[in-house]
GNAT family N-acetyltransferase (Paenarthrobacter aromaticivorans), 208 residues
Amino acid sequence: MYGSAIWPVTLESGALVLRPIRYRDKREWSEVRSRNSEWLAPWEASNPAPGGRLPSYRQMVASLNAQARQSTALPFLITERTEGFRDPQIVGQLTVSSIVWGSAMMATLGYWVDKERAGHGIAPTAVAMATDHCFRTLGLHRMEINIRPENAPSLRVVEKLGFRDEGYRQRYLHINGEWADHRSFALTSEEVPQGLLGEWLRGRTGRS
């Protein structure tokens, strides 16, 4: 699974759709990000270079698309079918990045979700969809998620899905203007032989 064979791809589960990010999504994406600026600020990646800035929307999409063509990333928007709208609406973003093939067969996953839709199972469902695709379709072996210790909503996501806590990484990423510690969580394909999404959805049904 190398080259253009892995991308583009669209994944669906119920009303939730993971699809490639596009240049023409700028207006809707920017509106969602603007509404969530305070909600996302504490977890926002930053540029450690003196005077460094984050890329513009166009630069971000160009970089993500280049990584996708090189088979090192899967840049998804999280969208949701909503009554009254013809097309699924953007409710977040999920990127599988740092894909390593060969003897490693692993990747890292990151995501954010609109505050108005948080707590409705969107993040764990999206993470489960993407992880299953990486394990069962692409043949990857390990998925890793790194989370700030203070980020309680994201910690609940990995807890719900059964990702293992592998400990602290000191000053791991530059977040919101400073080098920040993270907790590292991981899952391997052997741990979810029947797939992660089905197990998560069955658990939700049981709890409800």
Observations:
- Residues 3-207 form a domain with the Aminopeptidase fold (CATH 3.40.630.30).
- The CA atoms of residues 14 and 192 lie 21 Å apart.
- The chain has a mean pLDDT of 93.
- The helical segments are 26-35, 37-40, 57-69, 122-137, 152-161, 196-207.
